[in-house]
Write a structure and sequence with these properties.
Strand order of the largest sheet: 3-2-1-4-5-6-7-8
EC number: 1.1.1.8
Bound molecules: nicotinamide-adenine-dinucleotide, SN-glycerol-3-phosphate
Catalytic activity: sn-glycerol 3-phosphate + NAD(+) = dihydroxyacetone phosphate + NADH + H(+)
Largest sheet: 8 strands, mixed
Keywords: Glycosome, NAD, Oxidoreductase
Pfam families: NAD_Gly3P_dh_C, NAD_Gly3P_dh_N
Enzyme class: oxidoreductase
Number of strands: 8
Shape: globular
Length: 412
C-alpha cells in the first residue's frame, strides 16, 4: 500500500496538467516507488547483514573469555554485566562453597543473593584455570590485598591478556597507586586499563543507567574495553589520563568519609556542600601536581564519583563517616562491616605520600619535619583531618572545629 502513495500524490498534485505531462510524472512516480521498493529490499538486505554481523559478533563474544579476580560486590556486578553482553566470565573466588553455589545454584551466596547469574558465569578457586585462556582480566580485589594476590598468581597471567583494574586507592606499604603497582607486580603483562567513575555495584546489578570511564595509555585497548562493556544501561567513556583517574578514584573515598562525618554530626546541607567542594579542591591540587588533566577532575572519575559517594546512601565510605560522626569507634565500625571501605586505608596512605612529597627525599631533623607536616596539612586539611579522626587523635567534632578555625584565604 505504501508503494502507491507517491503515485497517488503525483496524480492529485497534477490534476490540472496535460496527458503528456501526467504520463511523465507517473513514470517519475513509478521510479520513486521502485526506488522505494529498492530501498525496502536494501533495508531488508541490510537488516539481514546486521543480523549476521550481530550473530558473528555474539559468536566471537562467546569465545572471548573474561576472568574476574575477586568475587565481591564489584567483581560480581562486572561479571553480571559482561556475561549479559555475551562473554563467558569466570570469577576467581577464594572459598569452595562460594564457587559451588555460583556454579550450581547460579547465585553468589555472599553478594546480591537475590540475583540469578547468567549461565555463562562460572566460578573457580583455581587461578591457573581462571587466567590461562582469558582474553581480558578484570581485577576487583581490594587495593591492600592486591599485592599478595598478584605475588601468589603472577605466573598465571598470560602476557597478552590486558588487565582492567577496578580497585580504587593507594597501597599503604608502598604509597603507590594501582597504575604504578600493576606494571611492577605483573611485569609480563603488556597492557593495563583502569575503570573508575560513579558506579555502585548494586545499581549495576539492578541495570540502572550508569556511566564510567576507562583510562589507558593504550587508546585502542580503552576503546575495545568500552565496546565490550557497553550496554543500553552502561555507558563507557575513555581517557588516556590514567594518573588523573587513579588519583581521583583514591581521593574521593576519603572525601566521602568526611561527607559521612558531616552527615553523622548533623551539620546540614550548607556545610556538606562546602566540605565536598573543598574536598574537590584538595583532589584537584594533588592530582594536578601529579600530572593529571583538569578535564578528568571535572569528569566521571573526579566530581562524578565524588558526588556519588558523598551523597549516595549506598557508599560504604560515606557510611563509615556517618557512623564515626554519630560517635562509634572505627574498630567497632570495621568489625561489624563485611565489605571494604577503601578510604580508611587510603587516608593513611595519602597522608604518608603527602608528607613524603613535602618532606622531600632527604631526611630532615624533627623540627623541620613538623614544619613540612604543618604545611602539607594546611594544603590538604580535609585529607589530614580525616586521617587524624580515623587514627583517633581528634574527634569528628574537633576535626570540624579545626576546619572552621582556618584563617581566611583566597579560594583556590
Ligand atoms: N562495590 C562497588 O560499588 C564498587 C564500585 C566501583 C569500584 N569498586 C572497587 O572495587 C574494589 C573491590 O571492591 P568490592 O566492592 O568488590 O569489595 P567487597 O568487599 O565487596 O569484596 C572484596 C572481595 O575481594 C576478595 N578478596 C579479598 N582479599 C583477597 C585476596 N587476597 N585474594 C583474592 N580475593 C580477595 C574478597 O573475598 C571479596 O570477595 C575496591 O577497590 C572498590 O573500591 C567497588
Ligand atoms: O561504596 P564505596 O564508598 O566503596 O563506593 C563504591 C564506588 O567507588 C562508587 O563508584
Amino acid at each position: 500500500m505504501t508503494a502507491f502513495v507517491p503515485v497517488l500524490q503525483v496524480i492529485s498534485r497534477n490534476r490540472h496538467l496535460g496527458a503528456e505531462q501526467l504520463r511523465e510524472n507517473l513514470n517519475y512516480a513509478e521510479g520513486v516507488s521502485n526506488r522505494r521498493r529498492g530501498q525496502v529490499q536494501c533495508a531488508s538486505e541490510n537488516s539481514w547483514l546486521q543480523r549476521r554481523r550481530k550473530r558473528r559478533s555474539l559468536e566471537k563474544r562467546s569465545e572471548t573469555k573474561v576472568a574476574v579476580c575477586g568475587g565481591g560486590s564489584f567483581g560480581t556486578a562486572i561479571a553480571f554485566l559482561l556475561a549479559n553482553n555475551g562473554y563467558p566470565v569466570q570469577i576467581l573466588v577464594r572459598k569452595t562453597w562460594v564457587r559451588d553455589e555460583i556454579n550450581v545454584e547460579r547465585r553468589n551466596p555472599k553478594y546480591f543473593t537475590e540475583f540469578v547469574l547468567p549461565d555463562n558465569v562460572t566460578a573457580t578457586i583455581d587461578a591457573e584455570e581462571a587466567l590461562t585462556d582469558a582474553k581480558l582480566i578484570v581485577h576487583a580485589v581490594p587495593v591492600q590485598q592486591s599485592r599478595s594476590f598478584f605475588e601468589a598468581n603472577t605466573e598465571y597471567f598470560p602476557a597478552d591478556a590486558p588487565v582492567l583494574c577496578t580497585s580504587k586507592g593507594l597501597e599503604v606499604t608502598s604509597l603507590k597507586f594501582m597504575c604504578e603497582l600493576l606494571p611492577e607486580l605483573l611485569p609480563r603483562t603488556k597492557s593495563f586499563a583502569y575503570l573508575s567513575g560513579p558506579s555502585f555495584a548494586r545499581e549495576m546489578m539492578d541495570q540502572l543507567p550508569t556511566a564510567v570511564v576507562v583510562a589507558s595509555d593504550d587508546v585502542d585497548l580503552a576503546l575495545r574495553i568500552a565496546d565490550m562493556m557497553s550496554s543500553p544501561f552502561f555507558k563507557v567513556f575513555t581517557s588516556s589520563d590514567t594518573i588523573g583517574v587513579e588519583v581521583a578514584g583514591a581521593v574521593k573515598n576519603v572525601i566521602a568519609i568526611a561527607a559521612g562525618i558531616c552527615e553523622g554530626l548533623g551539620l546540614g546541607t550548607n556545610s556538606m556542600a562546602a566540605l565536598v567542594t573543598r574536598g574537590c579542591s584538595e583532589m584537584r591540587r594533588l592530582a594536578l601536581n601529579m600530572g593529571a588533566s583538569p578535564i578528568t577532575l571535572s569528569g566521571l572519575s573526579g566530581v562524578g564519583d565524588t558526588f556519588l559517594t558523598c551523597f549516595g546512601p549506598l557508599s560504604r565510605n560515606r557510611n563509615v563517616g556517618v557512623r564515626l560522626g554519630k560517635g562509634e569507634t572505627l574498630d567497632s565500625i570495621l568489625s561489624s562491616s563485611r565489605q571494604v571501605a577503601e578510604g580508611v586505608t587510603t587516608a593513611e596512605a595519602l597522608v604518608g605520600m603527602l608528607l613524603n612529597q613535602y618532606n622531600g627525599v632527604s631526611q630532615q631533623d624533627n623540627k623541620e619535619i613538623n614544619v613540612y607536616a604543618t604545611r602539607a596539612a594546611a594544603r590538604y586539611p580535609i585529607l589530614f583531618g580525616v586521617r587524624a579522626i580515623l587514627e583517633g587523635r581528634i574527634t569528628p567534632q574537633e576535626g570540624v572545629e579545626a576546619l572552621l578555625a582556618m584563617p581566611p584565604r583566597e579560594e583556590n
